[in-house]
Every structure is written in C-alpha cells, then in structure tokens.
Amino acid sequence: MNAKNKSLKKTRVALRDAQNTALMAIAYYLEDDDAYLKQAKKYLLAWAETHQPNGHPINETRLEGFLWAYDLLRCHFSKEEDKKIKIWLINLQSNKHKWKFGPSSGRNNFRTHQLKMLLMIDRLLEDKASLKSDREVLQQHVKANILEDGMSFDYQERDALHYHVYDLEAWLEIALLEPDYIEQVTASYDFLMKQLKADNIYNQFANSKQKIDQKRAKGGFSYAKKGGTFDTTRITRSVISYSTLKQEPLEEQFAFKYLSKKKIKQSLFQYVRYYLWKTK
Fold this sequence. Notes:
Elements: H1 6-14, H2 16-31, H3 34-50, H4 64-73, H5 79-98, H6 109-125, H7 128-145, H8 153-158, H9 161-177, H10 182-197, H11 211-218, H12 236-246, H13 261-266, H14 268-278
Helix pairs in contact: 2-3, 2-4, 3-4, 3-5, 4-6, 5-6, 6-7, 6-9, 9-10, 9-12, 12-14
C-alpha cells in the first residue's frame, strides 16, 4: 500500500476516461458535433470490452461517468454495440451483488458506494426486481450509516472528515435518484458544515478504529496521517452535488469558499451538471 505505486497511478489516470466520456456526451447534445459522440462511444465500448468487473465497491465507483454517458447516448448505439454495453453492466451488477461485506464495510462507505452504482445500473438495465431488492437494502443501510445527528458511521469509526465526505459523495448521488433520502443526506451534509464552522478540521484520524488508516499513512497517503489536518478543498464535489440536489445557488453556500479550481476540474462533470440542472 504505497501512494507512489505505479499501478495505482496508472489506474487513476485511466479512470479519468469515465468523467471525460460523460462530458463528451453532454458536449454532443450541447454542440451537436458528431466528433463528441464518436469519441464517447469509443471510450464506452473499449471499457465494456476490456474491463473485467470484480464488484469492488471502491475500485469501481468512479466508473459512474460511463453510466451517465450511456444513459445520454444509448439511443445512438447499434444493437450489437448496445448488447456489449449491457453485458458489461450485467457483469458489474452481478459482481456487486456477490460482494461480501464485513461488520464494518457493511455499514460504511463501501456499502454506500456499492448501492450508488447498483441503483444506477438497475435503472439502465430496467431491472425492476434488482432495483426493488437494492432499495430494500438501502432502507436498512441508511439507518446504520447515517446517525441521528447526521454523523456518518465512517466518522464515528475513523474520527476523520475525509471519510465522512467520501461517504456523503455517494449519498448525494443516491438522493438525486431517490428523493426519499434527501432528509437524511441533508443531515449528513449539515453535520459536515457544523464541523467546518467549528473549525474542527485538526487532529484527524486520532482515534480511528481502522488499522488500514495507519497502513495508508505509512504508505505515503498524507490524508490518513494520524493527527493531521483535513484538506477542506476535499468537500468541493459534495458542495456542488448538494447545490444540485437542493437547487440552491452554489455561490451562496457557506462552503463555497472552500472550493478549489483543481477539485472542480476533478469533478467537472458534477460542476457542469449543476448548471444544466439549474436551467431546467
């Protein structure tokens, strides 16, 4: 577990394809330029033909951009192309359902990210049975994952805003699909805002119960350093997605001052989506 691992760096670069594909899908509809459509289809088909899903909730969560792109462009695929995409989605769905959770991962961000992806895939496949089943799991998960005061199980277990935010990112996407959870997700977002207003960003991971946090800190992952300071720009995606969910002006958010250009670039699809939904 090393932050400088070459394989890890290559994977992070490769995963940029997902967001880029989603942005090209949007660009196609805004500009009516077939070049965007052609490139987006090329990326989607290449991943569908190459990627072998294993169901890992975290390793595959950033593939969500491909799901958004397919939703926008599916009518432009031939029957054979569409079949390839659906086989890939079915494999993703199947392996995610097979994933075995532990006592902790079954309550934390692992399960939240798994459900986020499944709820999107279920809709794309028009799989009503799977959607019903995943919604039932979601009903139980929200009780275990978001506590009464909005604190996440992740924060309770890790004593770190980093993982509260990571869990919240997935919940915000879920709430965009499942409005019944807006109240709980808002409570989680408000908990984050309270910590920021109280300047409770220091001494992070000080009481983490997860041994993996120590391993990550030793491996060069600075965010996991025991007693470290939370990088407030890390909330950029959450603030953008929350503003989209609530249809509130981004610039009027208390946390707007924490947004960074670098993080906006990394969440460019969510940023563009916010402005598109704002004009609906």
